[in-house]
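Subject: DUF261 domain-containing protein structure
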Amino acid sequence: MIIESIRQDNRQLISCIGKWGCYFLCLHYFISVFKGIEFTVSDININYGKFVCMELIRSNCYILDPCRILKAYGLATSVRREFEISEVKIKDLAGYHFMATKNSSVLYDSLALKERGTSYSITSKRIFILFSKKKE
């Protein structure tokens, strides 16, 4: 299953991913783009458990170390330039949502806000630079 087709309302996802997993799903989107990996819902659920055990995310899907999650797939990154995960505020809702973006374009949104006509505004961006691997 192509990551773009996996939405947070997928009932096969672990419930906290369905509620709070937007950032986690955005990380999977970029891993898929840069590594060519096609994740299934089962893969994402397994990764959730693995990364909770590794203390890279909390059980409520709060991301503690996005760079180490990306590094687990061979993506050496730093939080600066190259690709973005934007934090957005949804009108009339408490909390925030995350989506994969490039400048003002939305690349992946696990809640499909634009398609649903939901108003939101970008409040901040997490910007990552992808380091090239050193040749040994």
